[in-house]
Amino acid sequence: MTISSPTFDEMFTADGGTRSAYAGYSEWLEAQDQHWMTHKGAEAEAFFRRTGITFNVYGEEDAEERLIPFDLVPRIITGKEWRRLSRGIEQRVRALNAFIHDLYHRQEIVRSGRLPERLFRDNVAWLPEMVGLTPPGGVYTHIVGIDLVRTGPDEFMVLEDNARTPSGVSYMLENRETMMSMFPELFTGMHVRPVSDYPRRLAKSLAACAPECAAARPVVAVLTPGVYNSAYFEHAFLADQMGAELVEGSDLRVQDGRVCMRTTRGYQPVDVIYRRVDDEYLDPLSFNPTSLLGVPGIMDVYRAGRVTIANAPGAGVADDKAIYSFMPEIVEFYTGEKPLLPNVPTWRCAEKDSLAYVLAHLEELVVKEVHGSGGYGMLIGPTSSKREIAAFRKKLEAKPENYIAQPTLALSTVPVFTKKGLAPRHVDLRPFVLVSPQGIDITPGGLTRVAMKKGSLVVNSSQGGGTKDTWVLDD
């Protein structure tokens, strides 16, 4: 299972040549003045600061809002590569939606012996309240983020599935707007597929999932936990770009069997709620009774089919990293096809033999919590001290079913612009997928996250990673 290969740089070949995808950009870059580019970097930072493009870095004493580092060198993907990726992403998203439906209905995959029942029965993201409930339009995963990593010229793998409330799309859009405003000549000379219509497509996709009782023009609202949430900028940004209302739980109430929104003309029905509030806080009458972030009774309206909640409550069961390890079987079970995009090889620490291997090779592996996210609660063996490994070993031995392990991948690199010139940094990619009864819509590109520290494999914004504009060439 160990993957060991030299790092693949997406812009430069091993002998220093430029790969074909970057030929046009490289020619342009060589003609630019280094000091001018440095000035442009400062200009981009000032733009992000004025716009308020920030993210909270939790777990530190000075955990305040910070600017997300933005790099001027785009990540470029050829049209041929994107078409292949799109087919694999679409297949996976179809399987995820069918899988979630099955878990809350007949559980055929469990009956077949392909998936252990304990994986969802003991899973906090699996909601008994959703059993037997089919959302309007049959869609559970309205917005999906599939995290991809690249290890070679034709080697893409899925690192994680994000079916709960994937974030980062506002940074994708702002990255593109920043690049187009600073370097307009690049976009006149290169055929880069647009991403700016994502909010329109999101609004259209959400409206297509409206319940039967919806107005002719469905009313869409974005439900945010409020201004102190780490991703509040994105909530406000998307609501504004979609022409939707940005609401908090206190702005909504259940009235006459509908979820209604407070307006200057009184309370008006809402048809679709794009929620950025976790399941636990969504309805204090069904989940956490102390929650002030949700709407009392919203689950009763949802069960009655009189409001759409995107993504569906309980969809987060598909984010579980132990279930992720079964995705090849899940894809084949629901699509009848072999997966077009492979998983990263994964050891399930709940299994005795796998645990023994992981404990014997901790210094070589990446170990993650099955319910973890944002880069928290994980061990990166090759960069951890003996003391950190020893402490993590105790946690793993105490609760092995809480962890999975993966090899340390040779993630591809894309150069970043530094004062000393270009320098390679590791990246991943989160394409954004919209699902509705009308089909699956994949935005060309997505969010490239980059580890800003030399040699680091941690790209998460919450851990200090940065972002790049992602170009898909239209060839």
TrEMBL record:
It holds the Pfam family CP_ATPgrasp_2. Residues 74-451 form the Circularly permuted ATP-grasp type domain. InterPro entries: ATP-dep_Glu-Cys_Ligase-2 (IPR051680), CP_ATPgrasp_2 (IPR025841), UCP005522 (IPR016450). This is Circularly permuted ATP-grasp type 2 domain-containing protein. PANTHER family: BLR5612 PROTEIN (PTHR34595), SLL1039 PROTEIN (PTHR34595:SF7).
